[in-house]
Specification:
The chain is mostly helical and about 200 residues long. The chain is built from six helices and no strands. The chain starts with 16 loop residues before the first helix and ends in a 24-residue tail after the last helix.
């Protein structure tokens, strides 16, 4: 193996200029992602705005329905992963090896842990919209198709998938949303100091 065969290294053992450029670009991108983490509402508003712009573009161009259908399927898969628990209770039913979701009022509280966390859901959904938007600039992705059939297929797929997910939620008694759930708190510190 000769000197400089590893990825991103030049002949003299230093990282190449291209590698340093993309490495720095990745660091800047990750920095912006880290800064956006606490702003959940703003992130989702931007994603919905991008989605709206994409839909307007598809409507005005009257094409790229296959790309839109693929984007819808991708978002549906992300949503199902977002609603699903990290550890599937149906797999844990037979074994007592690990934690499970509480099924009775007097059981220990265990928070719902998602298979796909909210931030990754948002990030993947936004990337999907941007890739679909990029595909609309290439005529090769504009496959002629009768779009009402795709809409019908998507609605059927959505209904069947959500029905299965809701049955799963009812069977194993979990709710993937925190709105309306009881909040557990520790002892409150009243802030009094002891005088000796």
């Amino acid at each position: 193996m000769s000197e400089g065969d590893s990825i991103g290294e030049s002949v003299h053992g230093k990282p190449s200029m291209v590698y340093r450029f993309f490495s720095r670009l990745g660091q800047i991108y990750q920095s912006w992602l880290d800064k956006s983490t606490p702003y959940t509402a703003v992130r989702w508003i931007v994603t919905l705005a991008l989605s709206f712009i994409y839909m307007i573009r598809v409507y005005l161009l009257q094409g790229w329905y296959i790309v839109t259908y693929a984007l819808g399927i991708y978002h549906l898969n992300l949503f199902i992963a977002f609603l699903s628990p990290k550890v599937d209770p149906s797999l844990m039913e037979d074994s007592d090896d690990g934690p499970s979701l509480p099924t009775r009022q007097n059981e220990e509280f265990r928070p719902f842990i998602r298979r796909l966390p909210e931030f990754k859901f948002w990030h993947s959904a936004t990337k999907g919209i941007l890739v679909a938007m990029a595909c609309t600039f290439f005529e090769a992705f504009n496959v002629p198709v009768f779009w009402p059939i795709l809409v019908m297929y998507f609605i059927m797929l959505f209904c069947i998938t959500m029905k299965r997910q809701i049955k799963h939620m009812i069977k194993y008694r979990y709710i993937p949303f925190t709105h309306g759930k009881r909040k557990y708190k520790g002892k409150e510190d009243v802030g009094k100091t002891f005088a000796s």
